TrEMBL record:
PROSITE patterns: ABC_TRANSPORTER_1 (PS00211), ABC_TRANSPORTER_2 (PS50893). The keyword Nucleotide-binding applies. The keyword Transport applies. One of its GO terms (molecular function) is ATP binding. SUPFAM superfamilies: P-loop containing nucleoside triphosphate hydrolases. Keywords: ATP-binding, Nucleotide-binding, Transport. InterPro entries: AAA+_ATPase, ABC_transporter-like_ATP-bd, ABC_transporter-like_CS, ABC_transpr_LolD-like, MacB-like_ATP-bd, P-loop_NTPase. Coiled coil: none annotated. This is ABC transporter ATP-binding protein. The lineage of its organism: Bacteria, Pseudomonadati, Pseudomonadota, Gammaproteobacteria, Alteromonadales. It comes from the Bacteria. Residues 10-231 form the ABC transporter domain. Pfam families: ABC_tran (PF00005).
Length: 231
């Protein structure tokens, strides 16, 4: 008997994006990621990793081509529909975490649930997620701006996971951590993703982190082979 087919979570076809300001461009003919796959995406600084994540998060829209996420024609959705889709189905952790410094940890996480129209989230759920990320629940009522970088990073992950997204996009989150904190963080992140069966795209230029993920992809291997169209 054949194995049941794993659905495709992310599908890119002929995606092309160029920054209007300086002409820097990214061109990806085809890329597919299966639901539940945990992908380590690497490439040198300036190769376009963040640009690709921004396209997957709908922060940028491709000039040409299509991005399909979970069977939805994501890149053709209108702004409001794309925002709603992102809030419900995609968790994003940016390099700078983008927490609201003057709000408490609990409020930062609650806001993500609010924007996704997720009214079921209770303080106990937030506390449980924070505890699963090995943060003290005493921090829930502290302002996010008062936490250490490592703590902020975990809050950013909690905020990204509170709506149980099918897709989690994480951009170079470990550069501020020492080696043992980095190991612990990677273990936690991948364990939580496995629990949620979330598709994880983890971007870094630090190749030592690839051991924690299922698949390693060099951004250069996805890009258009045309020599005049760098990543
Ligand atoms: N907002 C922007 N406006 C114009 N050009 C940009 C912008 N952001 C990135 N670029 C350019 O696009 C290219 C890819 O940048 P990007 O930040 O995606 O690379 P990266 O691989 O994530 O780099 P790093 O590892 O340093 O974060 C670079 O040439 C960069 O200068």
């Amino acid at each position: 008997m054949s194995e049941p087919q794993v659905p495709v979570a992310i599908n890119l076809e002929q995606v092309y994006y160029q920054y209007p300001k300086n002409g820097a461009e990214l061109s990806i003919p085809a890329w597919q990621v299966l639901q539940g796959e945990r992908v380590f995406l690497y490439g040198p600084s300036g190769s376009g990793k963040t640009t690709l994540l921004n396209l997957l998060a709908g922060v940028l829209s491709p000039d040409r081509g299509s991005i399909t996420l979970l069977d939805s024609a994501f890149s053709t959705l209108s702004g409001a529909k794309r925002d709603r889709f992102r809030a419900r189905h995609i968790g994003v952790v940016f390099q700078q975490f983008n927490l609201i410094a003057h709000l408490t940890v609990a409020k930062n996480i609650e806001l993500a649930a609010y924007f996704a129209g997720n009214t079921r989230v209770k303080r106990d759920d937030i506390a449980a997620l924070v505890a699963a990320l090995q943060l003290s629940t005493d921090l829930l009522d502290k302002q996010a701006g008062q936490l250490s970088v490592g703590q902020q990073q975990r809050v950013a992950i909690a905020r990204a996971l509170i709506n149980r997204p099918e897709i989690l996009l994480v951009d170079e989150p470990t550069s501020a951590l020492d080696a043992s904190a980095r190991d612990a963080f990677m273990q936690l992140l991948t364990t939580l993703c496995a629990k949620l069966n979330a598709t994880l795209i983890f971007v870094s230029h630090d190749q030592s982190l690839q051991q924690y993920l299922d698949v390693t992809v060099a951004l250069s291997s996805l890009c258009s082979p045309r020599e005049d169209a760098p990543c």
